[in-house]
Design brief:
Residues 74-192 form the DUF218 domain. This is Protein SanA, affects membrane permeability for vancomycin. One of its GO terms (cellular component) is plasma membrane. The chain has a single domain (59-242), classed as HUPs (Rossmann fold), CATH 3.40.50.620. Helix content is 50%, strand content 14%. The chain contains eight helices and eight strands, in the order H-H-E-E-E-E-H-E-H-E-H-E-H-E-H-H. It has a six-stranded parallel sheet with strand order 1-8-7-2-5-6, sandwiched between helices. It has a two-stranded antiparallel sheet with strand order 3-4. The longest helix is centred in the first third of the chain and has 29 residues, at 31-59. The protein starts with a helix and ends with a helix.
Length: 243
């Protein structure tokens, strides 16, 4: 009996042993295997950077500053977040550039496009209020409340607001994507990249653009409808006619 009890305890101990962790893949041992691994890694990096390279090449020749951008009727300012209901510093810099262009007579109307998907979050109205405080008449500002991303904003500028040609205003790390996507949406764009200090947000934005370039390539290739389209709106034409 004692012998059987010991065997049962030993069997239980064996059953309670933790499973061995899975073995990690070993690096190739041969020179050929290591060379193929390096080649595969390089190919993956090239494929990941191809969309970003495409964006850079597609926007060449269309980037300007506030001082030399061609006179254009409409400027489009993309949303960039709110802090306590007010434009974030990055968004404020975009709006400052739009106000500067308006005061200089280089644009006539500002289309502010951003997110208003929640009652407690309203980018376009915050952008409008900021612009009016900085000298842009309210009648010269048009709001797009369904600019949920860059592609949606570009498509809606063309199909909803009837914008054929525009100055696009954003940060330098984003402006090439905006220019390229608006071209794909049928808008003839000029891009103004706003300078900002290279802080953590700037580096985050630059890194995010590498990932966003892949989606931009798909949007430009397949041209999906925006999340919300809706009927055409005459706001831009009315503003150009004097409000």
């Amino acid at each position: 009996m004692l012998h059987l009890l010991r065997r049962a305890r030993a069997g239980g101990a064996r059953r309670l042993r933790r499973p061995r962790p899975p073995r990690l893949p070993r690096p190739p041992r041969t020179r050929t295997g290591r060379r193929r691994l390096v080649q595969a890694g390089m190919a993956a990096c090239v494929l990941a950077l191809l969309p970003a390279t495409w964006l850079r090449l597609a926007a060449d020749g269309r980037l300007h500053t506030t001082a030399d951008v061609p006179r254009t009727e409409v400027a489009v300012v993309f949303g960039a977040g709110l802090w306590d209901g007010e434009p974030s510093p990055y968004l404020a810099h975009r709006l400052d550039a739009a106000a500067e262009l308006y005061r200089a007579g280089r644009i006539e109307v500002v289309l502010v496009t951003g997110d208003n998907s929640r009652e407690d979050y309203d980018e376009p109205d915050a952008m409008r209020a900021y612009l009016t405080r900085h000298g842009v008449p309210d009648a010269r500002i048009v709001s797009d409340y369904a600019g949920f991303d860059t592609w949606d904003s570009c498509v809606r500028a063309k199909r909803i607001f009837g914008v054929d040609r525009a100055v696009l205003i954003s940060q330098g790390f984003h402006i090439r994507r905006a220019v390229t996507l608006c071209r794909a949406a049928g808008v003839s764009p000029y891009g103004v990249g706003v300078d900002d200090r290279h802080d953590l947000t700037w580096y985050y934005g630059g890194t995010r653009e590498i990932l966003a370039a892949g989606k931009a390539a798909l949007d430009a290739a397949f041209r999906p409808d925006p999340r919300f389209l809706g009927p055409r709106e005459p706001g831009v034409r009315r503003a150009l006619d004097g409000g």
